[in-house]
Amino acid sequence: MTEKLKKSPDITAPEGPVFIIVLDGIGEGRRDDGDAVHLARTPAFDYLDGVALRTQLMAHGTHVGMPSDDDMGNSEVGHNALGAGRVFAQGARLVDQAIASGAIFAGPVWQELTAQNLALGSTLHLIGLLSDGNVHSHMNHIFALIREAHRLGLKRLCLHPLLDGRDVGATTALDYIRPIEACFADLNASGDCDYRIASGGGRMLTTMDRYEADWRIVERGWQAHVLGQGRAFASAEEAITTFRQESPGIGDQSLPAFVVHRDGQPAGTIEDGDTVVFFNFRGDRALEITRAFEEEHFPYFDRQRRPQVIFAGMMQYDGDAQLPTRYLVAPPAISRTMGELIANTGLRQLAVAETQKFGHVTYFWNGNRTGRFNDDLERYIEVPSDRVDFSERPWMKAAEVTDAVLAELAENRYDVVRINFANGDMVGHTGNLEAAIIAVEAVNLCLQRLLPRIAALGGVALITADHGNADQMFQLDKKSGGIARDAKGQTAPLTAHTLNPVPCWFYAPGGQSPWRLDERLSVRRLSNVAATVIRLLGYEPPEDYDPSLLIR
Question: pTM of the full predicted structure?
Answer without folding.
Answer: 0.82
